[in-house]
């Protein structure tokens, strides 16, 4: 199977190559793709070096699937060209997520909706993915009414320049490109993406809107506060969920332990709970601090952590491609 990785020289693109190799995706020919300034650069995949090609060359090479991680504007301009050539695109940007004609897919939840006609498939926002993977089995059992989520998101979510800024600040350097409007080291920024007219950020509204679309239920009410913190291992979330029906905590744990892609780490007496440092480099979503909200009925508190470059981006995209290949949709 011919596989193109668009944005192969970027942070998430590199992770996609790593995940494709680790999961032994059946790649007969790898086509690393990037913008004009990166053409000719080399990327490594399974011990071999591959030269980066441009968009037109990649389309002419007719890959079966193209996994995009090249930003929203590039995706809007280029993904339709791949699709018109019969190539299935799995896109990591926000460009197509809320397009009513495009599927927004987390494989554990809604991959079964995919058809051969879906030529551009959207990969959800990283912070949304890890939350809905945990919420899905609970929604099926107890029906979610309302979600209050606060995120604690890694600088890797902004890209390599943000990681560089963090470590430059930590090293005491002053001459570097700033990605954030304030210092990030030893600080917390309640600001991810741009602010909208309603006072929320674009990131916060992504969580609101994407959750409803992925879970195919517009009745779920979500309110979010998204926060950037100086970590690199992954995103963490404090999630408060109100259900229509009451629940048993032991049953909640059992449901989550049985869920594909979820690992329960919930033994606070022995200091076992999810953390970015232990989720780093892993594909699963980790959940702990499972407890009843004692202030109102039918309400649960959870702490959810996942590596945002893995399940939050690269792994989810590769899992979509795996589903397409397994069901002969590409």
Tell how many strands the DSSP assignment holds: 14
| Average predicted local confidence, pLDDT | 97
What kind of assembly state do the chains in view correspond to?
single chain
What is the H/E string? EHEEEHEHEEHEHEHHEEHEHEEH
> How many distinct helices?
10
- CATH architecture heading of the largest domain: 2-Layer Sandwich
Strand order of the largest sheet: 2-1-5-6-8-7
The biggest beta sheet reads:
6 strands, parallel
Highlighted features:
330 residues, alpha/beta, six-stranded mixed β-sheet, six-stranded parallel β-sheet, Dihydrodipicolinate Reductase, domain 2, Rossmann fold
Secondary-structure topology with pairs:
Layout: E1 2-6, H1 11-22, E2 29-33, E3 42-45, E4 48-51, H2 55-60, E5 65-68, H3 72-84, E6 88-91, E7 103-104, H4 107-110, E8 120-122, H5 126-142, E9 144-152, H6 160-170, H7 202-214, E10 221-225, E11 235-243, H8 249-258, E12 262-264, H9 276-279, E13 285-292, E14 299-306, H10 310-326
Parallel strand pairs: 1-2, 1-5, 5-6, 6-8, 7-8, 9-10, 12-13
Antiparallel strand pairs: 3-4, 9-11, 11-14, 13-14
Helix pairs in contact: 1-10, 5-7, 5-10
Notes on the structure:
With 330 residues, the chain is α/β, with parallel strands linked by helices. The chain folds into 2 domains: 2-124 and 313-326, NAD(P)-binding Rossmann-like Domain (Rossmann fold); 127-308, Dihydrodipicolinate Reductase, domain 2 (2-Layer Sandwich). The protein contains 10 helices and 14 strands. It has helices spanning 11-22, 55-60, 72-84, 107-110, 126-142, 160-170, 202-214, 249-258, 276-279, 310-326; strands at 2-6, 29-33, 42-45, 48-51, 65-68, 88-91, 103-104, 120-122, 144-152, 221-225, 235-243, 262-264, 285-292, 299-306. A 6-stranded parallel sheet has the order 2-1-5-6-8-7, with helices on both faces. The chain has a 6-stranded mixed sheet with strand order 10-9-11-14-13-12.
């Amino acid at each position: 199977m011919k596989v193109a990785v668009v944005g192969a020289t970027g942070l998430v693109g590199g992770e996609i190559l790593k995940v494709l190799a680790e999961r032994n995706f059946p790649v007969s020919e790898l086509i690393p793709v990037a913008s004009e300034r990166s053409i000719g650069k080399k990327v490594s995949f399974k011990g071999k070096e591959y030269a980066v090609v441009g968009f037109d060359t990649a389309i002419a090479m007719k890959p079966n699937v193209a996994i995009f991680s090249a930003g929203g504007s590039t995706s809007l301009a280029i993904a339709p060209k791949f699709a018109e050539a019969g190539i299935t695109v799995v896109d990591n940007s926000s460009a197509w997520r809320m397009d009513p004609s495009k599927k927004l897919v987390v494989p554990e939840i809604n991959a079964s909706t995919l058809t051969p006609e879906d030529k551009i498939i959207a990969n959800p926002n990283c912070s949304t993915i890890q939350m809905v993977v945990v919420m899905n089995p609970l929604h099926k059992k107890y029906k979610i009414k309302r979600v209050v989520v606060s995120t604690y998101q890694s600088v890797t979510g902004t890209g390599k320049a943000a990681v560089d800024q963090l470590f430059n600040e930590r090293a005491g350097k002053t001459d570097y490109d700033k990605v954030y409007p304030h210092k990030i080291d030893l600080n917390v920024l309640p600001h991810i993406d741009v602010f909208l007219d309603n006072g929320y950020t674009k990131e916060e509204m992504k969580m609101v809107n994407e959750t409803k679309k992925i879970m195919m239920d517009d009745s779920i009410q979500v309110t979010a506060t998204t926060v950037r913190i100086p970590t690199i291992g992954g995103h963490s979330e404090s999630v408060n969920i109100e259900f229509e029906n009451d629940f048993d905590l032991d049953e909640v744990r059992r449901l989550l332990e049985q869920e594909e892609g979820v690992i329960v780490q919930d033994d606070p007496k022995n200091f076992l709970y999810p953390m970015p440092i232990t989720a780093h480099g892993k594909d699963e979503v980790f959940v702990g601090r499972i407890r009843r909200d004692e202030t109102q009925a039918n309400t649960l508190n959870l702490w959810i952590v996942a590596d945002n470059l893995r399940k939050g981006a690269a792994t989810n995209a590769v899992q979509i491609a795996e589903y397409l290949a397994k069901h002969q949709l590409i």
